[in-house]
Structure prediction request, 175 residues.
Amino acid sequence: MCGGSMMPIFLVEEFHDIAPPVDYSLVPPWLIFVATFAGLILLGWVVWLIWRKRKQPQSPKLPRDTALDALEQISTEIERISPYRFSIRVSDILRRYVTEQYALPVTRQTSVEFLNALTNSSPFSEEETRLLENFLNRCDLIKFARYNATTADSRSLLEEATRFVKGGELATTFA
Prediction:
C-alpha cells in the first residue's frame, strides 16, 4: 500500500491494451464494396426497365381495327344469339365505329335523323352511304318492326357492317 491510499495491489496493476481485431476475411474489403455497388446498379437498371415498360403508352387501336375485331368476335356468336339481339349488337358496333372514326353523332340520333343529316354533308362515298342506309333500315326493321329475322339475316347484317367498316370493299366471311 502506498501513498496513503488503501487500494488493493491487484487494482493498481497496469492494464494492458486490447489487441486489435484480427482480419480473417479472405475477400478484400474493396472487392466487397465494388460487388455491392455493381449489384445496386444492376438492381436499379432492372427497376428502371420495368418502370419504363409500364409507363410506355400502348398505341391506341384505330376505330376501324376495333370495329373489325368486334365484328369478328360477334360473328362467332351468330348461331347462339337471337337475330333481334344480334342486330342490336352489330348496330351498336357500327354506330360506335362511325362516331369514333368520323366524329358523327350516330349514337345520339335515330337512324332517320342521321341519314337525313348525311344528305347535307356526308364524309362517305355514295356506295358507303347506300350501304349504311340499307344496314340501318334493316336493323330498324328487326328491332322496331319485330321482323321475324333468321340467322341468314344476321349473316347479311354482319357482312354489310363489315363491308362498310372496310370502306365498301367486299368482305370475307368470318365464320
Q: What stands out?
A: Confidence is low (pLDDT under 50) at residues 169-175. The CA atoms of residues 2 and 48 lie 74 Å apart. Residues 63-165 form one domain. The helical segments are 9-12, 29-55, 63-75, 83-102, 111-120, 126-144, 151-165.
